[in-house]
Amino acid sequence: MMIFASGFALALLAARVAAFPVLEARQGISTLTAAQVAAVKPYSYYAAAAYCVPARTRAWDCGTNCQNNAAFRPIASGGDGGVVQYCIPVLTNADFRLDALDSGLFPGVSSSVRTHNGFGEAQKRSAAAVLAAVRSGLSTHSATSVTVVGHSLGGAIAIISSAHLANNLPAGTIIKTYTFGTPRVGNEAFANYANARSELIRVNNKKDPVPIIPGRFLGFAHTEGEIHINDAGQWISCPGQDNTNSQCTIGAVPNILVSNSGDHSVNVFVVSPDTHSERRIDPHITVEQLKGKLELITGIPVSHQALSLLASQQDSRVLAELSDDSKPLGFYGLADWQVIKVTDTNPSDTLTGQLTDVSQVEKFEISEAEYAQRNDTVLAYKQRHKIGRFAGKVEEKQGDQSEMNVNIPVGSRCEVESTEPGLSKRGTVRFVGPTKFSKGVWVGVEYDEPFGKNDGSVHDERYFFCRQNYGIFVKLDKVKVGDFPVQELDLEDEEM
User: How many CA atoms lie within 13 A of 248 on its CB side?
Assistant: First the structure.
């Protein structure tokens, strides 16, 4: 198996490759079964693992992503975070030129077969070493198949590498390629060239902007095999190249203005002595760039910041010290729901820790009896408005809810009634109907924020897909459908 992270040339080989049911081109749009989705997901963990430093991938010790494919045994790993690994973001942002494939790597190929100049150059730098490692692995382990995996810009390199390997490995070698959030790599002639040499599967997440660039008007085209994860969490098979159906990426994200960069970034928690927040972070930015953003959030000057990467909020193991300011965050294996801990190395010069030190604050105390007599308290508010335990008992509605006239369309925006004053819980309706966990009709909602209790499943029965703690099931009378846009306090503060 060969894996490329975003802008990252890293090779991993295995003697055995996990089996995957072939997703043959269909005449129409179709939804993948749960079994097909489960078969693709392991490759997403491989792609995420490739962000880790080579020493950790060689030891297969890169946290959750390695643990999710625990039986995998790498036999080669490369890359040092230098030119080959991280030049690509600069190249892609600077120029969208289409160049012919290198004749030394692709002898005899037509000059009409062209790729993005940055992707082609990056693949060229590692091509010889990768081919040698793959040949050695196939020979040593008597293997007959190679799977190439990549994420984002690394997915572009993976597609070019698949074509290169197919031209140079023994006849009969099976090449499979799985990419995630990949941009267009070359022109239509290249897409056809790559399609003929590998079984290509490319997965795009919701409104991720990366798969729609570079634009088709510049002469670029996608390879076949798209699977689009839509807003409802369904995995949709989209046959052909650049399928414009509304359920596929090009139809759902016709331009950058309607895209969501958060669908391409990583969700992490940022903690410091005075702050705790959830943030969306681009793994391509450097540690130095991240520190500049964190100063505005934590109040700790860049020169005083020491950053540590922790496994999760529940697991405080230190996975890495982000000590090299020049390295992209992806180099350290940044993954969803990990924690970036910000430590102030010189707190005597700042106010760090003083804002949350309650020992310095004079406390106001009041007895329960005095509190109960006041009319300007939360308790008084709940009593006046009959909220919570003051609401009294409400007679249960007669009849089966399943017989009610339900007018809550799946996919519509909604607001869920909350018992907490001033708290608005907005989201999108993902399910309406009877369930196995309780009688009557229930509404499944994917919240915009992690206010929920599940991921769209209850007692191992799945009703829809969403992230953990974003899903909730409520009664019909608790849901109000309408024009309820996502509430954004300050997008610049939430994205990095």
Answer: 20
